[in-house]
Write a structure and sequence with these properties.
The complex is a heterodimer of chains A (about 230) and B (about 290).
Chain A lengths: L2 H29 L4 E3 L1 E2 H4 L5 E8 L3 H4 L8 E6 L2 E3 L3 E4 L4 E8 L22 E3 L2 E3 L7 E7 L4 E6 L21 E8 L4 E6 L23 E6 L1
Chain B lengths: L18 H23 L11 H34 L17 H29 L18 E8 L2 E6 L5 E3 L3 E3 L4 E7 L4 E5 L4 E5 L5 E5 L6 E6 L11 E7 L1 H14 L24
Parallel strand pairs in B: 1-5, 4-10
Antiparallel strand pairs in B: 1-2, 2-3, 5-8, 6-7, 6-9, 9-10
Helix pairs in contact in B: 1-2, 2-3
The chains are: A alpha+beta (about 230), B alpha+beta (about 290).
Chain lengths: ~230, ~290
């Protein structure tokens, strides 16, 4: 084999290897999802039908859950008594889902005030710190839990700035300043539904819409109706 | 057509037929048969259907385009097939064909015909746009404004959903688009954050949703149906999920629906900004 042929073969092999590595990287990125956490049956915990999904929202996810982005705002989900950094939830089709959100972040305000109104719950209301309401002041919104395909829009009010004992980073505990939001909604047919926060809550990013708002696993995810 | 010096015709070669005349005849006959067939058979199923006057106009436009394109397509295809049959390399050796040095008549004809095609289509498109905007965003000051009463509806794009405001019904905002059939609608398309594009396929409507901009579209729905709505501008992580289903209903059903929306969102109406054709939303606290 001539020197030129050897060089060409080497280049060809190199190109193929780099191409395969790039392909593997893209495939891994495109198919990587946070682990799906299933809502638990409420028969076991409350004596009535349906499932329970327990979430918390934090201003900073912290190094324990996200070493690369410890200061990003995020949701977490309770899985068998432990807080897990995931935004992919599984709930049964055609069923009642009870949701509790422990909200530890301060307010940011909604870009579209309309989305501060509750939509899609079984009662048309949410319960905030024990009080039912049909909506909140959009200026007081910290986040939302919204599943547009299911018509579900839940505003989450922020913890007042002056509140003492604010949580620094996840996992936060209910001994720290927080708001408790509960609601229930009915799922429909099986499918994968996107959910997201509509508050531009990504601190430091243009219009508050970058970083954790544009990355699966922080302020948005999937609701797998199975 | 110039012939290379020294080129010698083979002895006893049969007389060459007039290829140009023969090819032209085949092309004209094929075009006369195929063009009406394409227009009559394919035209009615051209997108986007007849969900609105503007969508029907698109069907007509697409039919005109395909009707004009059919003879051009046939010209290319027939020439390819004709050449393959009559100008193929004979078996038994490579024969150099005569060199062609240009043909002013063919070149001129080609330039004139294609120029006429393009210019006539440009004129046709301009006329269609001037009629009613053809379902496209015409900016804040449309040149063509249809006469008669119009129902103003605002389309508000945001990452990642469309919401809608009805200024003649107290500025009520909704998460779904519902329009009355046979009513000219004046859509005001805007965005609260990045650039989106409001695409209501069955209505033949597509308009950019730009922040701080009022992009006006006119559309008259003509069919009671569901309408697919999508964002047609790559706008971030959930662009692919920025879709919705709108509904075209009877005027009576629309009246009932809009009254329900006003009642449903009455308690939150105080939080909505006064209706405006564009918004510069606050706050930007975290993004600043």
């Amino acid at each position: 084999m001539s020197v030129l042929a050897k060089k060409l073969l080497g280049i060809a092999v190199g190109v193929v290897i780099v191409g395969v590595l790039i392909g593997l990287y893209i495939a891994t990125w495109a198919t990587s999802f946070p682990q799906s956490v299933a809502a638990i049956s409420t028969r076991k915990v409350a004596g009535f039908s349906g499932t329970q999904l327990t979430l918390q929202t934090v201003a900073s996810i912290g190094p324990k859950y996200s070493p690369s982005h410890p200061d990003w705002v995020s949701y977490l989900v309770l899985d068998h008594g432990k807080w897990v950094h995931s935004t992919v939830f599984s709930v049964p089709a055609n069923s009642l889902v009870h949701v509790t959100v422990y909200q530890f972040d301060g307010d940011s305000g909604l870009r579209n005030p309309f989305l501060s109104q509750v939509q899609g719950t079984t009662t048309g209301t949410v319960t905030i710190d024990g009080k039912p309401t049909r909506g909140i002041d959009p200026e007081e919104a910290s986040h939302t839990f919204a599943v547009p395909q299911l018509g579900l829009f839940i505003p989450l009010p922020g913890v007042p700035e002056e509140a003492k004992n604010q949580c620094e980073f996840a996992p936060c505990t209910t001994s720290e300043a927080h708001r408790t939001i509960t609601f229930a909604f009915r799922t429909g047919k099986k499918g994968r539904y996107r959910w997201q926060c509509f508050v531009p809550c990504a601190a430091g990013w243009i219009f508050g819409q970058g970083g954790p708002m544009q990355t699966l696993g922080y302020m948005d995810g999937f609701l797998n109706v199975v | 057509m110039a012939v290379e010096p020294g080129h010698v015709e083979p002895a006893h070669a049969p007389p060459e037929p007039n290829h140009a005349r023969r090819f032209g005849a085949i092309w004209i006959v094929a075009s006369l048969i195929a063009t009406p067939l394409v227009v009559l058979l394919v035209g009615p199923i051209m997108p986007p259907g007849n969900g609105s006057e503007q969508a029907s106009g698109h069907v007509t436009d697409n039919t005109v385009l395909i009707g004009m394109a059919t003879p051009v397509l046939l010209l290319v295809l027939i020439y390819l097939i004709y050449s393959t049959i009559y100008f193929r390399q004979p078996k038994g050796g490579a024969l150099e064909g005569p060199a062609i040095r240009g043909n002013a008549r063919i070149q001129t004809t080609w330039i004139v015909i294609t120029s006429l095609l393009v210019l006539s289509l440009a004129a046709y498109g301009t006329v269609r746009l001037l009629e009613d905007g053809a379902g496209s965003g015409a900016g804040p000051n449309p040149v063509a404004v249809p006469s008669g009463a119009k129902l103003p509806v605002q389309v508000i794009a945001q990452e990642w959903a469309f919401t809608y405001r009805y200024p003649t019904y107290g500025g009520v905002e909704t998460t779904h688009l519902v329009l009355p059939v046979n009513q000219m609608v004046e859509l005001h398309v805007t965005s609260l954050d990045v650039i989106h594009s409001f695409w209501a396929y069955q209505l033949g409507v597509k308009a950019d949703a730009n922040p701080n901009t009022d992009n006006i579209v006119f559309v008259r729905p003509t069919k009671r149906e569901s309408v697919q709505i999508r964002c047609a501008e790559l706008c971030g992580l959930w662009h692919g999920y920025m879709f919705d289903t709108g509904h075209i209903v009877s005027p009576a059903a629309f009246g009932v629906w809009i009254a329900e929306q006003q009642k449903r969102f009455a308690s939150g109406a105080k939080y909505l900004p006064k209706y405006a054709t564009k918004y510069i939303p606050e706050p930007l606290r975290r993004g600043e």
